[in-house]
Amino acid sequence: MKLLRNTWYAAAWSRDVGADLSTRELLGEPMLLYRKHDGAPVAMIDRCPHRFAPLSMGKRVGDGIECGYHGLQFDCSGACSKNPHGDGRIPPGARVRSFPAEDRHGLVWIWPGEPSRADASLIPDFSHLVSPGLKTVGDEMTQKAHYELVVDNLMDLSHVNYLHAPYQQVDDFLQAKHDVVQDGSALESRRTVAGTRAPQSFRPFLDDPDAPVDYWLNIRWHAPGCCLLETGVVPAGRPREQGLVRIGTHIVTPIGAASTQYLYASSRNYRLDDPDADDETVRWQQMGFHEQDKPMIEGVQTRMGERELFSMRPVLLATDAAAIRARRLLAAMIDAEARSDQPVPAAIA
């Protein structure tokens, strides 16, 4: 599995990482996650180098851990700190690989590349997740598909008129102007439909659901799998600042070659304390992500098998522009990293 290594991946929601030892599969490895006494997150391979027992089956010893099988202890950097056997000498190879970890914007992030290059300022901005001016509802799921197929689905929003109809269907959406803009190593896909019928997902929250609105969907991709989707409606002709806005968080982290961890959330600027609005969000996430996106993406993976997308010579449509550019940009970044981290071109055709 080819991966971009010198980058940040979301390992879990912050709320799901505590003092207790927890484990999940990420980036082709079993990952042990927990917090030190000061609250800082720790991430390391969940495998003792002695007999390969899951360290998550051990126990906490201070800020370190003790293997539950033979009692070797490791500090939070992964170095063996105690060998209870024989003369107590610590074997040279008694070390567990650990990863730089950061808690930012309600997420725990890990850096699987060169530790000296881990820079927390490179974590994509998902500060809306913890904004007091927004109400956020989210969860996570696993998709049995390559992570790039999940990104493809997010970057090609034309599918909402079909896969998510009638809940997200909008008149004239497929004919609306579609811009794809590159900003360094990030891409943004922008669509606006002026003077249209509001999609069903917004109609219950509009004063006049039948009045024409300006509707927009802008999705921003940060390599390798972080997407921020802003959708909104406003009475036709009015500034967007006066509209109803939802910011969607969609972050995918590879588990294996054909499985993906998908963290998702919706942050809205209206009815912040309305439990009915919360319930509507949860209902849509269940229907849209679990019952519609998931089986379709997994079906695509099944039909593709182990073959790579471009090797199958897919027929490309105009709406594929953002997804294809994201794939090509990511491939260039991975290739550049493999060639001693040479700079990636500023623009990828």
Features:
349 residues, alpha+beta, Naphthalene 1,2-dioxygenase Alpha Subunit, Chain A, domain 1, elongated
Structural summary, described in words:
By secondary structure, this protein is an alpha+beta fold. It has two domains: 9-111, 3-layer Sandwich (Rieske Iron-sulfur Protein); 127-338, Naphthalene 1,2-dioxygenase Alpha Subunit, Chain A, domain 1, CATH 3.90.380.10. 16% of the residues lie in helices and 32% in strands. The strands form four sheets. It has a seven-stranded antiparallel beta sheet with strand order 12-18-17-16-15-14-13. A four-stranded antiparallel beta sheet has the order 2-3-4-9, with no helix packed on it. It has a four-stranded antiparallel beta sheet with strand order 5-6-7-8, with no helix packed on it. Helix 1 packs antiparallel against helix 3 (321-338). The chain is elongated.
The CATH superfamily name of the largest domain is Naphthalene 1,2-dioxygenase Alpha Subunit, Chain A, domain 1
Distance between the termini: 24 Å
Order of helices and strands: EEEEEEEEEEEEHEEEEEEHH
- Share of residues in helices: 10-25%
User: What structural class do the secondary elements suggest?
Assistant: alpha+beta
Give the overall shape: elongated
Runs in which pLDDT lies below 50 for 5 or more consecutive residues are 343-349
Name the CATH architecture of the largest domain: Alpha-Beta Complex
